[in-house]
Amino acid sequence: xxxxxxxxxxxxxxxxxxxxxxxxxxxxxxxxxxxxxxxxxxxxxxxxxxxxxxxxxxxxxxxxxxxxxxxxxxxxxxxxxxxxxxxxxxxxxxxxxxxxxxxxxxxxxxxxxxxxxxxxxxxxxxxxxxxxxxxxxxxxxxxxxxxxxxxxxxxxxxxxxxxxxxxxxxxxxxxxxxxxxxxxxxxxxxxxxxxxxxxxxxxxxxxxxxxxxxxxxxxxxxxxxxxxxxxxxxxxxxxxxxxxxxxxxxxxxxxxxxxxxxxxxxxxxxxxxxxxxxxxxxxxxxxxxxxxxxxxxxxxxxxxxxxxxxxxxxxxxxxxxxxxxxxxxxxxxxxxxxxxxxxxxxxxxxxxxxxxxxxxxxxxxxxxxxxxxxxxxxxxxxxxxxxxxxxxxxxxxxxxxxxxxxxxxxxxxxxxxxxxxxxxxxxxxxxxxxxxxxxxxxxxxxxxxxxxxxxxxxxxxxxxxxxxxxxxxxxxxxxxxxxxxxxxxxxxxxxxxxxxxxxxxxxxxxxxxxxxxxxxxxxxxxxxxxxxxxxxxxxxxxxxxxxxxxxxxxxxxxxxxxxxxxxxxxxxxxxxxxxxxxxxxxxxxxxxxxxxxxxxxxxxxxxxxxxxxxxxxxxxxxxxxxxxxxxxxxxxxxxxxxxxxxxxxxxxxxxxxxxxxxxxxxxxxxxxxxxxxxxxxxxxxxxxxxxxxxxxxxxxxxxxxxxxxxxxxxxxxxxxxxxxxxxxxxxxxxxxxxxxxxxxxxxxxxxxxxxxxxxxxxx
Length: 763
Prior knowledge:
By secondary structure, the chain is of the alpha+beta class. Helices cover 43% and strands 11% of the residues. It has a six-stranded antiparallel beta sheet, with no helix packed on it. A four-stranded antiparallel beta sheet has the order 2-12-15-16. A two-stranded antiparallel ribbon has the order 3-4. Helix 2 (21-42) packs parallel to helix 5 (107-130) and helix 20 packs antiparallel against helix 21 (692-699).
């Protein structure tokens, strides 16, 4: 049943992961883990070693499945195996952070899934079999159940939730059924008189777990990637896995959230790049996996590859402050030459120009970027030619299932173009023409959102979409014409404010400024950005029709730049960046999310308290109905004493425990309590050591009233801290002492069908 429960929970990942092959891999991994744990126990290994030995089996299995033959005999991991595991984990994390949903399950993601389900299986086996807490075995299953709530709008599929709940209930019902029945030999199944109450308790605990999963999942907006104020940009900039669709979700927000602000010496306000996507695969664009090079610090960044000295450039300074953005990738004008003022370790990639950190994020950062304004001429772009560098050739590939309309449209639009540059401008002008319209809602309504090949085929027919579709269409059509292309995700220049500091205007950038634009590669110049999205951004000078503007004049209605100062960086410092302006904060949204998260966590934390209360009510019901004897009353007294800090040694007798309870304040000095305690003690000793007749007589005694008197005294004599601990973290739920005292199963204290009382023998 543990295997069924775990796999039912993993089914909830269906909305997040494409296909079903990954589920069968998880079946194999989980099955091997559970089977190996059972085999290890059958071999009579020490109980404490079972989880560790099972973890060793998991490592061997991972070596076999993902080690690529680096292990000894394909099974025993070596240094190369562990290094490969690290590479696969990093590749999986990178793929998760950049894919659309449902994400294509590549090798790295599959490795992470296998590791995760293996660890969850070990935890479940330890809780349910090793510690005999089957009710708690459902907690690890909440992990896959809650994941969709953090990633996709609709959350987990209800079918998966229902299947998981049913599997959990069946697991607990089987456990109750296998308990020794009163009057039976040890280990004989049957379920005690309290099994009906147990099932009601089971339903309550299961409901609490599912409610906790739903509340916690619903408390975090899908793909919320922002800072603590909840005013972030998309999941691209946080922990989501759907960058291009998330970008659209942020653009559709009724109220934009603040992202960053900046001041700059640039003559044209810069686009701020965050992520580069150049590997189109299946239904989405992905970034190419690039290993972090610790030698490539942001203090000194090399010129972009392919940029020759004959291309004009200007060095500019931009000071940026992050307001509502939490990501491990840094928004910068490109190409950046250096970054100063960052907290943490940040590194740059020569191929993607992305600046990222493995251990830091952008939240609260204030930094200064020195970058280049590259100013190629039309003539230089037209004359560009020659063989593409080896590292650029992968940016020419298209998926095999690319719709014919992509290549056909590209050839039709660029017919008669004299150079690849002229073809690129023709593609840009076509997409910005009157036939196309900017629309953030149509792709969602018509179910073709995203940037994959099939989506772009639909977009070229409907001619309605937003920046993701326009940039993807131009990039794919460029590749169809043998022009390397890629897509950059980041921010538009934002809105100029009236605040002027040191002679430079402050610009505000929010989530509605999120943007995607294509870059095309030209030999001798490098990656060159274009702007095919109508009504958004600014068309670069080199991409404007020659008759429209003179070279160097801002196009597309861009704001006029501030007149340059004698010292272009005077007054441009991080210290003055926030002067005169305060970041906007959505306090209501913050409090709502905090409240929901706190509520979900509170539900989870209260599960032990609820379980303990249900156990107490069950015992009272059995005692009140005359279906249990003094041994069950004494068990409740022992549990309560243990919960409230009274020491219970492994070898303690009932009389010794009674002596310890008498020392409690409010017990030993209260005759009524002492008399009730003595009656409970005598009745318990008769049950344990007396003959059947005496035991039967004792079982008919008014136990419940005496028990209530003593329990009130025990609680009253405890400190506030002890009472709180007894409520929230009841020790009796986890202590092995009582099991060793022969008090492990309440059912053994109930009378059998003939009215005879069994002395508990099951330890």
